Amino acid sequence: YRNADGRVTLSLGDVMGKGLIASLMMATARAALRGVAGVDPIDAGVKQAASVMSPALEVNHAYVTLFHCSFDPRSGELAYVDAGHGHARLLRAGAGQELLPQRSAPIGVFPDSQFVSGAVTLNPGDALVVFSDGLLDLRPDLATKEVQLPNDVRRAGSAQEMVDVLARGARDGTLTDDVTVVALRRLPTG
Predict the structure, then answer these.
(1) What is the 3-state secondary structure (H, E, C) of 101-155?
(2) Is 103 in contact with 81 (CB distance < 8 Å)?
(3) pLDDT tens, residue order, the chain (190 aa)
(4) N or C end: fewer C-beta atoms under 10 angstroms in the chain?
(5) How many CB atoms lie within 10 A of CB 119?
(6) What is the predicted pLDDT for the residue at 39?
(7) pTM
(8) Are 64 and 51 in contact (CB under 8 A)?
(9) Which of 170, 153, 151, 172 lies closest to 161 in space, CA to CA?
(10) How many CA atoms lie within 13 A of 4 on its CB side?
(11) Bridge partners (DSSP) listed for residue 182
């Protein structure tokens, strides 16, 4: 979602469970997150969305993991909330991979959860890659957070190519979970 001020809001959520009930809860989560896409600070937006989702989650004994961020392409500033998701990597153009340190509990686990926001700067050429736990069926090595993303992801020319490399094989096999990969890359200057 692109805000009126040029910021890009990106969310990746995963509802515990499968089937119709999980689908309905994900639709509720999606609507709640769209409704708070421009709310600043970002943790206040997540708290507001969680208050909308919580009644349905409580009734169905479920929870949602969520990675929600707001990116300013002009400055490279990225504000984020990781509510129990844990599958985000920051790839630095120069070299290396960083984990985002701020974490909160998943939405729906504790009634009065506080959502902690974090902030990083994406320099030109840096990328953020976020994926669902379903990718671990294809790439079990990525379950260890310290494992670097493969070199062909780092060498990818675009965010779409990063997604394609990581999700390769998702359509070919029988998977027990959905595979979602989202990449955001700050374009190099010049």
Answers:
(1) CCCECCECCCCCCCCCEEEEECCCCCEEEEECCCHHHHCHHHHCCCCCCCHHHHC
(2) no
(3) 777 788 899 999 988 877 888 888 888 899 999 989 888 899 999 999 999 998 888 888 889 999 999 999 999 999 999 999 888 999 998 778 899 999 999 999 887 889 999 999 999 999 999 998 878 877 788 887 777 888 888 888 888 998 888 887 666 666 556 778 899 999 887 5
(4) C
(5) 14
(6) 87
(7) 0.88
(8) no
(9) 153
(10) 2
(11) 130
Q: Assign residue 45 a region: left if phi > 0, alpha if psi is -120 to 50, beta otherwise?
A: alpha
With beta carbons less than 8 A apart as the criterion, state whether 75 and 118 touch: no
- Sheet order of strands, 77-83 included: 8-15, 64-71, 77-83, 117-121
**Length of the chain, please?**
190
Beta strands 88-91 and 127-131, pairing class = antiparallel
Amino acid at 53: M
135 three-state secondary structure: helix
CA distance 80 to 66: 10
In whole angstroms, how far apart are CA 141 and each of 144, 171, 176?
Answer: 6, 19, 17
Read off the tokens for 7: 């910021």
Closest listed residue to residue 74, CA positions, set 3, 2, 7, 10: 7
